[in-house]
Amino acid sequence: MMFKINDNYLKLPGSYLFSTIGKKVNAFTEANPDKPIIRLGIGDVTQPLAPAIIDSLHNAVDEMANAETFHGYAPDLGYEFLRSAIAKNDYQARGCDIAADEVFISDGAKCDSGNIQEIFSLDNKIAVCDPVYPVYVDTNVMAGRTGIYNAATEMWSNVIYMPCTAETNFAPELPKETPDIIYLCFPNNPTGSTLTKSQLQEWIDYANKAGAVIIYDAAYEAYITEEDVPHTIYECEGARSCAIELRSFSKNAGFTGVRLGATIIPKDLKSGDVTLHSLWARRHGTKYNGAPYIVQRAGEAVYSEEGKAQLKKQVAYYMNNAKVIYEGLKDAGYKVSGGVNAPYIWLQTPKGMTSWEFFDYLLENANVVGTPGSGFGPSGEGYFRLTAFGSYENTVEAIERIKRKG
Ligand code: PLP
């Protein structure tokens, strides 16, 4: 007898996108030690935490040093002060009907976007945008929900792919086959595309009619600049009965290393008589360790007047980089999109190059590292992602190099 593993993990194809990139970059650097590389590839932020957040962290650390103000285990679903701050600032201030007890504090949107599928039966068919953040599909693979992988098409037999192509401004169309669980991520990683409020409303109406649930990833909400782009799915009518929303403090406030997020599950969201709210509360109480008190206090500071002003500047800094990339590439004759409501610029690879051919081309000729679009789904082939998270100086230099040599 031998213990058995979850062999769904063995179905995951190939090596992880970013490890392949890492290997290629290391090989290049070894062979060309005199050529400094600029990374416009990885989706991690680079600016330090804002002063208001640092102050809040320091204060919370000091509280831990005294018996009277020490905090042990955090409440299962998060501290009330943070749940209320999120409900009030991110929802009620926008006219959305979300209460503090519908906000579940998490250690990030990645974790919850992976974990949320646990409260659904394996007997559900998922639909995903193509291309998109790979975690949605990969976690469903690990759970055994995705069927058989076809290496030629790079698709799973039991996943509905919704191509997001130039013809539709990189927005998905309503699928012909009805899914049970629909993952939407807007502003989108990697394309930087968005849906208008009326476009998103169509998805809500569709899901409510079909009895499907939407898992809406709002990780890049802070980057929205256009009026008609919703900041949350609950700006749409009827979303309370069909949508879960994932939020992150990573890209709006620099918490990629600190770790903090929130998942919104309205109490109206039911399968038969069972609320998803009650299932997720149970899951949180059993399997979630909680974001630390210190981190939740830091999250609260994101909503202080000082914090808001400082973070607005930080987002503007990255969005200025996005503009440098977008306009620079356009001047250089590239076909580009994104970059207006998102820190991602999506470009069509020139001269019919594949995504990976263009990766090598850019690395060798401009010493700039980006991310091949094919890593985000089959419809990403022929595209390439650049990110606005670098320093301004590096971003300008990278674009100059691409203009000169790329
Ligand atoms: N969701 C999307 C769409 C992302 O692109 C990312 C990170 O790149 C995340 C979630 C991860 O968020 P977090 O850092 O809160 O786990």
Main attributes of the structure:
406 residues; alpha/beta; Aspartate Aminotransferase, domain 1; Aspartate Aminotransferase, domain 2; 2 domains; 7-stranded mixed β-sheet; 4-stranded antiparallel β-sheet; 12 helices; 15% strand; binds pyridoxal-5'-phosphate
CATH structural architecture of the largest domain: 3-Layer(aba) Sandwich
Give the names of the bound compounds.
Answer: pyridoxal-5'-phosphate
C-alpha-based Rg, rounded: 21 Å
Count of DSSP H/I helices: 12
- The averaged pLDDT comes out at 96
Q: What can be said about the biggest beta sheet?
A: 7 strands, mixed
Task: Say which CATH homologous superfamily of the largest domain is assigned.
Answer: Type I PLP-dependent aspartate aminotransferase-like (Major domain)
Strand order of the largest sheet: 2-10-9-8-7-3-6
**CATH fold label of the largest domain:** Aspartate Aminotransferase, domain 2
Text of the CATH class of the largest domain: Alpha Beta
Strand-pairing-aware structural class: alpha/beta
- Uncertain spans, ≥5 residues at pLDDT below 50? none
Distance between the terminal alpha carbons, to the nearest Å? Answer: 58 Å
- Can you count the beta strands? 17
> Rough shape?
globular
Supply the number of structural domains: 2
Portion in beta strands: 15-25%
Instruction: Please give the share of residues in helix.
Output: 25-40%
Subunit structure: Homodimer.
Function: Involved in the synthesis of meso-diaminopimelate (m-DAP or DL-DAP), required for both lysine and peptidoglycan biosynthesis. Catalyzes the direct conversion of tetrahydrodipicolinate to LL-diaminopimelate.
GO biological process, one term: lysine biosynthetic process via diaminopimelate, diaminopimelate-aminotransferase pathway
Organism: Faecalicatena contorta
